[in-house]
Please model this.
Amino acid sequence: MSYKGKYSPINPRKYKGDPNNVIYRSLWERKFMKYCDTNPNILEWGSEEIALGYISPLDNRPHRYFPDFYIKVKESTGQIKKYLIEIKPKKQTVEPEKKTRVTKGYLYEVMEYAKNQAKWSAARNFCKDNGWEFKILTEAELGIK
Model:
């Protein structure tokens, strides 16, 4: 899943940001970019174009979080809705199970989970304040096995 590269939008007018510098950090993100680019119900989209402030629980200092995607969608009801989208493996969206042995790997999982919770709280607050919706998409929603 760690495949990285540059995406060239087929419909650059739909992209909000610099369409010549669209970077994906995983094949899952690339798949979602292609979906946004080609789906007629996605009116506009951007990748890591919005910066949100949050306080990291790891160092109790302010940091910036760039959600993976912003999309503006024409819903099946005809309503226009905006979303912030984060793409993550399902295992990173659930709290790590407590282990009897504390390994470096386990500590990393716990710290990443705590940091993600702070980021996602900032995203939910931003969306609530702006009438948007925040969604986390995993391999299940992306149709990846």
About this structure: Residues 8 and 20 are 7 Å apart (CA to CA). Residues 5-142 form a domain with the Trna Endonuclease; Chain: A, domain 1 fold (CATH 3.40.1350). The helical segments are 27-38, 104-130, 139-142.
